[in-house]
Amino acid sequence: VVNDDPGLAGRQVLARLSGAPSFHEIATLPSTDGIAAFIDSGRALMAVHIERDFTRNLLAGRPGPMQIIIDGRNSNTATIALNYANDIVLAFEADWVAEHGIPPTLATLVPRAWYNPDLLSRWFVVPGIVGLLTFVVTILVSGLSVVRERESGTYDQLLVSPYRPWEILLGKAIPGFIIGGGEATLIIAAAVLWFRVPFTGSPLALALGLALFLISAIGIGLIISALAATQQQGLLGAFLFIVPAILLSGFATPIANMPEAVQYLTLLNPMRYLMVILRGAFLEGDGIRQLANQYWPLAGLGLASMIIAAWLVRRRMY
């Protein structure tokens, strides 16, 4: 909240917004300069700025605009928040007119959506679909790789081959990396050229994030494949992981709205970090420096999953 109006109207409308069950006041700022830090970090969805002459304009029968700055990265949530705020301001205006006995005035919202000016839902959904489809295909390709060999009988040939376990693991990981990376590239091209979603960030930053994510997804898929005895088990195991991973990724529901225990659980989900990287690269213009906090968890998950997969493959070989 930024309130530059010393009058009664500014305090009253802010009290109504803060007291509404749909909103929670995070901070009161002395100027609009501090708004960007809260919106960019995701700590606040919306900022309200009451201009200096808000009360004076309403008492004089002139329009009293108040600016609403909203995070447009989640267009659905932003639209709902704007509708709630508009209803509250309309109710305030009706009570203000009745209380002061003056002609109806216009206490109007002037919305400004950052990162998605028109609040187009496809700007929010399509980058997430890039991660979703890449994740599903990569998990399925790698999740059926080892078990397919075992079921067809060719796995025994690997046992007597001169290849080391890590070499076999690398051979199973490379196809998933190529297929997942190729699919991600095609979907990103379709997002930009077909769906007209702006890509404002660094291609290198996105490529690095996708590479780390693919390593994590391949490691998880190889773990599933090493544990499964048949392709049906591998397919079932893959979907048992895919569905909750998507639900807990922030693809449709903001992670901040989940229970606290579930939020901690999402830290083990590589999809969570990819969603931030994709939307940051597409909508926020982020580069490697801004996305560094998403890289190292992905790298850790990738390393851990590949080590576990290598141990399981080696255990099945001897």
UniProtKB/TrEMBL annotation:
Pfam families: ABC2_membrane_3. It is found in: Cell membrane. It is a multi-pass membrane protein. The chain crosses the membrane at residues 124-147, 168-195, 207-228, 235-256, 295-313. Gene3D superfamilies: abc type-2 transporter like domain. Belongs to the ABC-2 integral membrane protein family. This is ABC transporter permease. It comes from Acidicaldus sp.
